[in-house]
Specification:
The complex is a heterodimer of chains A (300) and B (615). With 300 residues, chain A is α/β, with parallel strands linked by helices. Chain A contains nine helices and 13 strands. In chain A, strand 4, helix 3 and strand 5 form a beta-alpha-beta unit. Chain B has 615 residues and is an alpha/beta fold. Among the domains of chain B are: 158 residues; 204 residues, Vanillyl-alcohol Oxidase, Chain A, domain 3 (3-Layer(aba) Sandwich), CATH 3.40.462.20. Helices cover 28% and strands 20% of the residues of chain B. Chain B has 19 helices and 23 strands. In chain B, the strands form five sheets. A seven-stranded antiparallel β-sheet of chain B has the order 20-17-19-18-22-23-21. A six-stranded parallel β-sheet of chain B has the order 4-3-2-1-6-5. Chain B has a five-stranded antiparallel β-sheet with strand order 10-11-15-13-14. In chain B, 50% of the residues are buried. The chains are: A alpha/beta (300), B alpha/beta (615). The interface between A and B is large, with 49 and 39 residues.
Chain lengths: 300, 615
């Protein structure tokens, strides 16, 4: 039993389809209105059918009032950390602290190269992400003195101005699957953000992968609870009979999500489907019940 | 002269007040101003990210254009590098999708007036033709600025953001009044619905959408003043050789001229606009028990096909689509409107039936349609391990088939020695037994994998084509296609075609059987002169020069080409489309009716050249 004790977050994992841009914006508005905690968007800049996720995040943030937003996850290879740090801090300021930074090392290198980005090996990609997170946090840290300098090799800086300072402590959530990425997440991440469909054994993979993150956090002198565990579930639906994870009646969703929280320490649940009805029912019929159940179990 | 007026805001540092920024932008919008420009404060600490702020302001307002001063885009020299240009471009496109054309690119420019500039000063600055912006720090400032120029002196038309997307060489302000409300230019919200055609992407500078023949004449007059930019004519947007979109040029889209009207029921005389699709035509004629043969797809527009030929499922029975024409109304290059028929302008009536794209914009067609009741319709999928033999046998069967039976064959690259052959067949008979009898021999061309045979109407076959959605066609890039007429499908042809398909250069290969009634019309009756071939053959690939090399190698089997399906731009193709006597007659007519070569998008017959150029 692993429960890191974080508050629960319920959110959406949205495809930033250019063709359906009005619907994408409506989903964000629905999440905002229905009281969901998070709206997150995939980021594949090399995909012509998709919107630029940064622009979408900024626009959707401007059109909502309460909901928090994040990339899920932003593609570091095409979003240089200096640009990203300032854009992220700016959006956090403009939205009064509603932005969180989901980020990944990049996976589709052909697409990255086609957009003019550098093609890295997976191992270089991990190193670049570790460097980028340090750069981003340094640029946000306006309390420190002097300009920001970094040796590189991926993102060298000879003296960058600091700021702007985010409106709140922006959480860095890392999309990670492989050992080195999990180690990075444990060492420097504020959160781990995988997609259940990409885990080798689905939910059954969570204990082993969580353990790697815990280990890396401890080795870095951090508490494992410093790393929030989030989870995307892409394929979800409400159906009369139980078929699988988040594929069944609302009560089944409630039990499955509470179990994920109490057994695996997952405290943020981002569901796919790109569907209003799912979003509304998730907010109304599932989220409050999960909160209640988890609070009750935690109180025992 | 109208004065565009806006405010310029200093991008606040982190300790500034971002909410005040939104308030000022909203006040500018409600005061009816034309631009909110963002600029940085020299020497200030690191301020808000310009793009994120611009998008935020666009999201918190509804209409007003937002601009970013160019110096804000220069990266921090000590920082870790700028954004990728490709990502920046995508970001701008995305904002347009989300918020409309709101973002004024830095190069479009504006003039910054001093904070205390008066009305006279603003007027002088506006003489440069760019919007004038005045620094604003309070709601009071915005009110005062909005009062500097009287409402009647402010622009009523497109915003600076939209005008910034205009292309060079087009007199946008000179668009004829009759067309102004339906003209679409690159910054307009509707633009992305009109850029692509079925198989092609484009970025035209201006799309004119006339609704009447008078408006077509206005559009042609406008095009005459723009000889230096490309001109496309679009009906249904399915053109392959007829581009009907372009980069930075004009498109005359006659889609709105889509009327279908019965003129004389006894003679089955029907008047049809060029913008109707064949699916619509078939649906309109069906209640009368009539049909008019078109091509093989109901989504195709009338105008392009009915000026080129029209080789379809009913051609063997009733002739080409152009063979059913009794009159065509045209707007010529000089703007004059003519009715052509066997009696009036017979020379043009001859030319427009096969080479219409060179002579004018067709605004109406009169057809004598046929009585067609129920037909047999089959879609068969066969798998062949011996493509050469299957092709040869298909050639024999189609040659032996009666006129009521038309079978088109589609295949592609063989995989692991197996070819998937699709047959699309129409039998103009009502008796199911006859239909089956006609089709049965064709099932021997391979192992039958799927079959669907129905008795239906021509209307329902045309209705298989999907409707174009509200976002218009979605074609991207350039199609690569070659066409030829085959006098006969001999063993040598089957062998060489099989070799071509095995090469993988061709992903789509179609044989349309001809013959029958097509050959009843004498060759000199229409500019479409290829009356005797047994097949029209189309090959589509990915690389024009490699496909050309392979296709040229099959030349000994071919006798001419169908100009609708060929994208090769080498001058010899004109000689393939039109036999020498036809071409020289067409060129004479071209010299008479379009001496300045206004209509040049599709198999252009250049009036200045001689036949030497195409040999």
């Amino acid at each position: 039993m692993t429960d890191y004790g974080h508050d629960l977050l319920f959110g959406l994992f949205v495809t930033p389809s250019a063709q359906n841009a009005p619907r994408v914006l409506e989903l964000a508005a629905t999440a905002d209105r229905a009281g969901l905690d998070l709206v997150t968007f995939q980021d594949h800049p090399y995909q012509p059918a998709l919107l630029d996720t940064w622009t979408l995040l900024s626009y959707a943030a401007a059109r909502t009032e309460r909901v928090r937003l994040s990339g899920n996850v932003l593609s570091l290879p095409l979003r240089p950390p200096g640009v990203l740090a300032r854009a992220a801090a700016s959006l956090d300021i403009l939205s009064a602290g509603r932005f969180e930074l989901g980020i990944g090392a990049g996976a589709f290198w052909d697409g990255v190269a086609a957009m003019g980005g550098r093609r890295l090996t997976p191992s270089q990609g991990v190193d670049a992400l570790r460097e980028a997170i340090a750069v981003i946090r340094d640029l946000w840290d306006t309390d420190a003195r002097g300009v920001v300098r970094h040796q590189g090799p991926h993102y060298p800086m000879t003296g960058a101005k600091r700021g702007p300072k985010p409106a709140h402590d922006i959480q860095v959530w890392v999309g990670a699957y492989k050992p080195r990425m999990l180690a990075l997440t444990g060492a420097v991440g504020d959160g781990w953000l995988p997609t259940v469909e990409y885990l080798p054994d689905g939910v059954a993979s969570l204990p082993g992968l969580n353990a790697r993150i815990d280990e890396a956090a401890t080795a870095a002198g951090r508490a494992p609870a410093a790393v929030r565990r989030l989870l995307n579930v892409m394929n979800v639906r409400f159906s009369p009979t139980s078929r699988g994870l988040l594929d069944g009646p609302p009560q089944q969703w409630v039990e499955q999500l509470a179990d994920l929280a109490l057994t695996h320490g997952v405290t943020a649940f981002l569901v796919g489907g790109d569907d209003h009805t799912i979003a509304e029912r998730y907010a109304a019929e599932v989220a409050p019940a999960v909160r209640e159940l988890v609070a009750r179990e935690r109180g025992r | 002269m109208a004065i565009e007026l806006g405010i310029v805001l200093d991008l606040p540092a982190a300790d500034g007040d971002p909410a005040a920024l939104v308030d000022l932008a909203r006040q500018a919008e409600s005061a009816g101003l034309d631009l909110v420009a963002l600029r940085g404060e020299a020497g200030a600490e690191q301020g808000l990210d310009p793009w994120t702020t611009a998008v935020w302001l666009a999201g918190r307002t509804t209409r007003i254009p937002i601009g970013i001063a160019p110096d804000l885009n220069s990266p921090d020299p000590g920082g870790p590098g700028p954004a990728y240009p490709s990502v920046v471009a995508k970001a701008q496109q995305s904002l347009e999708v989300l918020a409309g054309t709101r973002f004024v690119t830095p190069d479009a420019g504006w003039v910054v007036a001093p904070p205390d500039a008066g009305a006279e000063h603003i007027r002088r600055l506006a003489d440069a033709g760019a919007p004038v912006v005045v620094p604003a720090r309070s709601a009071e400032d915005v009110r005062r600025i909005a009062g500097l120029v009287a409402k009647e002196n402010r622009p009523a038309g497109r915003s600076a953001a939209v005008r910034a997307r205009r292309r060079a060489g087009i007199d946008y302000d000179g668009v004829p009044a009759s067309l102004a409300d339906v003209a679409i230019e690159p910054g307009d919200p509707a633009y992305r619905r009109v850029t692509s055609t079925y198989l092609r992407g484009g970025s035209p500078g201006l799309v004119l959408r006339p609704r009447t023949s008078d408006e077509v004449a206005d559009a042609v007059a406008f095009a005459r003043r723009h000889r230096q930019v490309p001109l496309g004519l679009r009906s249904g947007g399915h053109g392959i050789s007829g581009r009907s979109t372009n980069d930075g040029g004009l498109v005359i889209d006659v889609g709105a001229l889509n009327g279908i009207e019965v003129l004389d029921a006894a003679q089955r005389l029907v008047r049809i606009g060029p913008g109707a699709t064949w699916k619509q035509v078939a649906a309109a004629l069906d209640p009368y028990g009539w049909a008019l043969g078109s091509g093989d797809y109901g989504g195709v527009g009338v105008g392009g096909l009915a000026t080129a030929g029209g080789i379809g499922y009913l051609s063997r029975r009733y002739g080409l689509t152009i063979d059913r024409l009794r009159a065509v109304e045209l707007v010529l290059a000089d703007g004059s409107r003519v009715r052509t028929s066997k009696q009036d302008h017979a020379d043009l009536f001859w030319a427009v039936r096969g080479a219409g794209a060179n002579f004018g914009v067709a605004t109406a067609f009169e057809f004598e349609v046929s009585e067609v009741r129920q037909v047999g319709w089959a879609q068969l999928v066969l798998v062949s391990t011996d493509l050469e033999q299957s092709l040869r046998r298909y050639g024999e069967l189609t040659s032996a088939a009666p006129r009521d039976t038309t079978v088109f064959l589609v295949t592609g690259r063989p995989r692991q020695g197996r070819s998937v052959i699709q047959l699309y067949a129409m039998v103009d008979q009502e008796d199911p037994e006859v239909i089956i009898e006609r089709l049965t021999p064709f099932t021997e061309l391979g192992a039958l994998a799927q079959q669907q045979v129905v008795r239906t109407s021509y209307k329902d076959v045309m209705a298989l084509a999907a409707d174009v959605g509200p976002d218009g066609h979605q074609g991207m890039g350039e199609p690569v296609s070659r066409s030829a007429f085959l006098p006969a499908l001999t063993g040598d042809v089957a062998r060489d075609v099989t070799r071509l398909l095995r090469s993988g250069l061709v992903y789509f290969f179609e044989l349309r059987s001809m013959g029958g009634a097509i050959a009843d019309t004498p060759a000199d009756e229409t500019a479409f002169a290829h009356r005797t071939p047994a097949f029209q053959v189309t090959a589509m690939g990915a690389d024009q020069s490699r496909l050309n090399a392979a296709w040229d190698g099959l030349g000994q089997h071919f006798d001419g080409l169908y100009l609708s399906f060929d994208t090769d731009l080498r001058p010899q193709r004109l000689g393939d489309a039109f036999p020498p006597r036809v071409l020289s007659r067409l060129r004479e007519l071209k010299r008479r009716y379009d001496p300045d070569n206004l209509f040049r998008d599709n198999f252009n017959i250049d009036p200045r050249l001689t036949e030497e150029h195409t040999r």
